[in-house]
Each structure stands twice: as C-alpha cells, then as structure tokens.
Fold this protein.
Amino acid sequence: MPLKILLISRCAWTLYNFRAGLIAELVDRGHTVVCAGRADGFEERIRAAGAEFSALPVSGQGISPAGDLKLLLAIYRLIRQTKPDIVHLFTIKPVIYGAVAAKLAGAKKIISTVTGLGFVFTREKGSWLRLLVETMYRVALLFPETVFFLNPQDRAVFVDSKLVSPSKALLLPGEGVDCSHFAPVPLPEGEKPYTVLMIARLLKDKGVLEFAGAARLVRQKAPDARFLLLGPVDTHNPSALNEQEIAAMQQDGAVELLGRTDDVRPFIADADVIALPSYREGLPRVLLEAGAMERPVVAADVEGCRDVVVAGATGLLVPKKDEKALAEAFLELMDNAPLRRAMGKAGRELVLDRFDEKAVCAAIIRQYEDKPRPLKAKEKRPEPPQ
C-alpha cells in the first residue's frame, strides 16, 4: 500500500546528501515523499529525485525561544496540510520540536533519528544547558514509536539518562554510503606531495584547531606536506571558529581552506589520508566515504569515529584534542605507502560489509511498512595488515 512519508531535517543539503538513497528507494516503491527543511539551494535536486520539498524556518543558532516556536508551528501546519502517514525526523531541532508538533498535529506514526548529540553533549554533564536540552529530548522522545541511533554509545547515553525508552531505541549502521557512487580510486603516486584532507564544517568541536596544530608540527619535518580543509564556515553554530582563528590558519599557510563543494569525491581521490579529529560524532559519513574510496583514515578515538575505524586495520585512532598524537599518526602513514594501501582496501571491505546504504534503507523501510526487525551489527572485522 503506497504511503505518504514526510522527511524533516535541518536543511535541504542534509536531506539530499544523507537521504538521497532513501528517497530514491521510497519513490521506486511507489510511496509519496515530502521533504522539509531550511532551503539552501539543494531543494531542486530533491525535487528532481521525485520528492516534494517544503521550506521550514530552521535556525542554525542555539536555543531561540521565538525562532524555535516559529519552527514548531511551521511543522505543525505542514503536517496538517500534507497529512502524511509517517513523519520521520532527523537532526537536533527537527527531532526535538518536530516530534511535539507532529503529536499536536495528530500524526499517525512518528519516527526520529538522533544523528548525533551535538555540541551540548561535549560539555560537562550537569551544566544548565545540557540539563535543559536533556529535558527537551525527554519530552520529545515520548512521541515517536521508534528512535534510531547511529552508534551504541549515543544510544546508551540516552537510555541511561532515561531520555528514551530502551524498547524503542534501535541501532542503525550509520546513515549508509552508496558504494557504487563512492568507488575505489588508487592512491596518488609519483612526485605528488603527501596530502591529508579533512572534510568538516569549520567548528572547534570537529577538531579543526587540532588539525591545524598537527599540520604545523608535521610541516616542521616535511615542509612539502599539504593539509587541506574542505568545508563551509558555520557562523551560527556555537562551536564555530571566529574570524581571528580562521585568519590565523590562513596566515601561516599550514592548512589550505578549500570552502564547500557539492562533490567531495575528487578531493578524496587526490588525498593520501582522510582526517577527522572530532570531539564526538554520531557515525561520521565522511569516514564511510573515505573507506568506500579506499582511503586510510586518522580520527579521534571518540564515539562514532571508533565505530567506523578499526584501529590498525582501516586507519589510526588518536586521543581527542591531542595535536601531537595526531601529527605522529600523519607521519606514521606518510612514511608507509604499503600500509596506506592495505588500510584503504580494508576500509572498503568494512564499508561494504557493515555500512552499505542499501542495508540502512532496508532497516528504515521495515519500520515504515510495519515489518520491524532490529538490524544487528556484524561482528566481523578485518585483521590489521601485517
């Protein structure tokens, strides 16, 4: 039976980049898909994929009573207007305010996906802001019948803090990656400088400052090494780098800022290593894309990252906020091209085995179509290369 499914995220970019496979699969099955979020230029791509799109006033700033109430009312009106069979909510503000709006609007079925815990959960437990956000989650997560998490650590935080009932908290293997789109590419060879690429918004919580510090340390020993940062400035995020911090990175030339792009594949293909020294992740898509393209990774040993990286097999894990350890990891891989190739191939195998987009879509659609079967994470992991 065809369904009308409303997917709400913070912006059109996240819907297109992280849910395109799900949208395509739903359209192929004959379902009607309506997407909603902040309009940012990607809405036409969503429409081209066969879905409708409605703009919502999703602010990128922190808690704003007036703005957040405006968002709640806009979601309420959209649900009353579209009358969907299922409302599926992604990212922090839609999950918190959208669930309340959906309940008030009489939505038939509500599903939420906690894609990551956000900057608040990197702060000290018991702070007033974290207590406030936890209370908001505790209320909002009363209403969905299913709440997906992308890693077991995030699920444990919510269950242990009694923010969500354990009976409806299910695990997904991330948001999945299209392994045919992110196809393997041989590592660069020849006289090309050793290149490390970080793909992230310019946020402190992503480890951008540690990446810059590690780049300076490495370039003291290998002046020709290149460190590239691909991602947009996010001035509304509380963790955003300020103008002085960005200017300092540009001034000393240790890191080259590339801005944002619609297609990360050429940049991954030109890199020797992909880095993500983040303070906390849901399950980082960029590390899945790197693995799919056979690139070794260096990441912080934190929630989310450690669920993607098999230390010694697909990449290296380093302590959070430790630029010296980060630099040492970059140097270790710089001096060992065979290890980089072995890690890249192991990364591709891991992504195919555990994080393929088709498995993620199937698990979600089972919930849509009332055929629940919890997805069990596979235990098989590749052995570290000798």
